[in-house]
Design goal:
With 247 residues, this protein is mainly α. The protein has three domains: 23-96, Multidrug-efflux Transporter Regulator, Chain: A, Domain 2 (Orthogonal Bundle); 123-181, no CATH class; 184-247. It contains nine helices and two strands. A hairpin with a 5-residue loop joins β1 (54-55) and β2. α3 packs across α4 and α8 (183-208) packs antiparallel against α9 (213-246). The radius of gyration is 21 Å and the shape is globular.
Amino acid sequence: MLRTPTGGAGHGTATADGRPMSIGTVLLQLRDEFPEVTISKIRFLETEGLVEPQRTPSGYRKFLPRDVERLAQVLRMQRDHYLPLKVIREHLDALARGEQTALPTPGAEADPGDGSPTGGPGRATAARIGRAELLAAAEVTESDLDAWEAYGLVAPSAEGGYDAETVTIARLVADLGRFGLEPRHLRPMRAAADREAGLIEQVVAPLRRHRNPQTRAHAEATAKELAELSVRLHSALVRTALQIRLT
């Protein structure tokens, strides 16, 4: 559910009367459901024709509530169905025209990339998708994905295909690429993640070896909590380092 924040003048605060909102307020609303969304992502979706905010005489974007809901629909279809933006735009435009249209099936018009027939058991699911669906979800080329795999940024699972977390990684790598960051630049992040995962593994390893199922379940919960704390610490350290360098 989208949040309707309250705030003072100058922040483009969303209000119940439907007044236009600034891009910063839109970001606040969307982040409740989509914590990884950024202002650059919203601007990118605008350039791709997914949303058309109003413009003030001085050029500032002003979003109406219907724009925010459309952005949320786009982000949900990317997250839950791994659909490319072109397909999402066509689907939403059809709905806006009043046409009754079903949500497209990922991979319905393309080989899933795992050797299975189109629309068959290898069709994309929320748990695992094929190479073609990953390319569509991240909106990148085969050569891009090859480079990411070569630098260890993404990798198929042991069972074949890519899981939902890998899709998230691919989208983030693609977003960073729009700022000129290449896979070789991101390799230290991969190395740091591996080190953090190793540290967490050391903490929970004794619990995971326990015979008691409840203890092993506690190990999984502990690992998830440690991972969340590690991510929060990393984010805070990066922000602090940037603040020092930019002041």
